[in-house]
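2024-03-11 09:14:02 INFO worker-7 job=invfold-0412 stage=load source=structure_tokens
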């Protein structure tokens, strides 16, 4: 019963939030007052349906884990959420601008002038509404094809001082934030595996947020990952989403698929006459779920050769602060999705020190993948779903 009560509260909160967000957006964009009754009823019904799709998708997933119905509801719910979240942002910006305009007009213009301008203001508001709807629909369609289209391969050269000659040109294919779940299934995962294998990397790194769901529900959809091919195998670290979906079970499943899990530990990789330490930490927040999983870059490299190159797999970029103290030369991360889609990309920098790409952090480098999949809405605006191919290069003195 406590679990059922929590679920009901969760659904109630989702419904209220979506109701307020979608309702406000629709109210400010659609001319309900001047609509014919039949069109008004259709519009209100459509908005109400969009609001209810969110909680409905959660309910259907419980009773119909794998069915065309649950998949269809999830697709529509997530695309709708993406559309309304972008539209809401534009509406809020527009309304704030109108508020400033109205305050300025009341302060500096007479009542008669304001009344004369009221008609022009109304026309401008209507024009802005049409513009917002047009732009948001366009961004939603564009973002969908960006998220679901052919994966981009991002090639990144990382300069390392004192890199052993044998390690020059060493390649690591990074998969991050795949988020196998309601809208990302085995077919998508197989496409990722095929693209990685085409690159013929020396090593494959999976930097967390592999899934959104339980092992029984998603086992068959992650199964293609067993076909990843590289010289030194596939290494995996947990992201925050694993801890929402049964981290211990997923650690066991990834091992069954042939991955080596790095949980605050390292593996010494021997490449020709050269060696380097590949370390991995649990997600930055893992300790709040499982105390023994507290992320610890220092611990990850205990016992590694002091003079060895150190590469760390860490889901969240904010791990770089402790990683640099641990003498890490390169950290590979994900988590941010590069912002995924507008306007989310405006807020990610408030939570993470770096959002995407390669950065120098003190004596270390950090590369943040934009993500191979996506979370929630199948949309990407301003980013692309990517596989990163990291290549080590000897830095010039």
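2024-03-11 09:14:09 INFO worker-7 stage=emit residues=397
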């Amino acid at each position: 019963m406590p679990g059922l009560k929590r679920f009901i509260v969760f659904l109630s909160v989702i419904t209220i939030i979506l109701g307020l967000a979608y309702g406000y957006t629709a109210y400010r964009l659609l001319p309900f007052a001047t609509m014919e009754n039949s069109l008004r009823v259709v519009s209100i019904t459509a908005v109400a349906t969009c609001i209810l799709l969110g909680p409905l998708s959660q309910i259907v997933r419980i009773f119909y884990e794998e069915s065309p119905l649950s998949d269809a509801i999830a697709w529509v719910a997530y695309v709708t959420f993406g559309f309304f979240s972008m539209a809401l942002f534009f509406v809020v910006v527009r309304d704030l601008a109108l508020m400033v305009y109205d305050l300025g007009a009341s302060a500096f213009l007479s009542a008669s002038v304001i009344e004369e301008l009221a008609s022009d203001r109304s026309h401008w508001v209507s024009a802005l509404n049409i513009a917002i709807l047009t732009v948001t629909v366009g961004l939603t369609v564009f973002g969908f094809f960006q998220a679901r289209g052919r994966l981009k391969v991002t090639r990144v050269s990382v300069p390392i001082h004192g890199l052993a000659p044998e390690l020059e040109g060493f390649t690591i294919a990074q998969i991050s934030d795949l988020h196998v779940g309601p809208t990302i299934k085995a077919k998508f995962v197989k496409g990722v595996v095929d693209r990685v294998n085409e690159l013929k990397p020396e090593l494959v790194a999976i930097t967390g947020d592999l899934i959104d769901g339980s092992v029984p529900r998603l086992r068959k959809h992650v199964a293609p990952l067993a076909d990843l091919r590289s010289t030194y195998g596939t290494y995996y670290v947990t992201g925050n989403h694993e801890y929402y979906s049964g981290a211990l079970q997923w650690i066991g499943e990834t091992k069954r698929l042939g991955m080596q899990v790095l949980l605050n530990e390292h593996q010494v990789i021997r490449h020709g006459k050269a060696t380097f330490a590949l370390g991995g930490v649990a997600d930055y927040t893992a300790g709040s779920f499982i105390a023994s999983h507290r992320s610890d870059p220092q611990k990850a490299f205990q016992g590694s050769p002091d003079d060895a190159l150190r590469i760390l797999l860490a889901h969240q970029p904010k791990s770089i602060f402790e990683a640099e103290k641990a003498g890490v030369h390169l950290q590979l991360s994900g988590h941010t999705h590069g912002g995924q889609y507008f306007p989310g990309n405006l807020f990610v920098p408030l939570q993470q020190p770096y959002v995407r790409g390669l950065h120098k952090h003190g004596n270390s480098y950090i590369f943040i993948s934009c993500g191979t999949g996506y979370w929630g809405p199948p949309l990407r605006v301003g980013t692309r779903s990517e596989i990163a191919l990291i290549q080590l290069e000897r830095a010039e003195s």
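2024-03-11 09:14:09 INFO worker-7 stage=report msg="The domain at 152-394 is CATH 3.60.21.10 (Purple Acid Phosphatase; chain A, domain 2)."
2024-03-11 09:14:10 INFO worker-7 job finished
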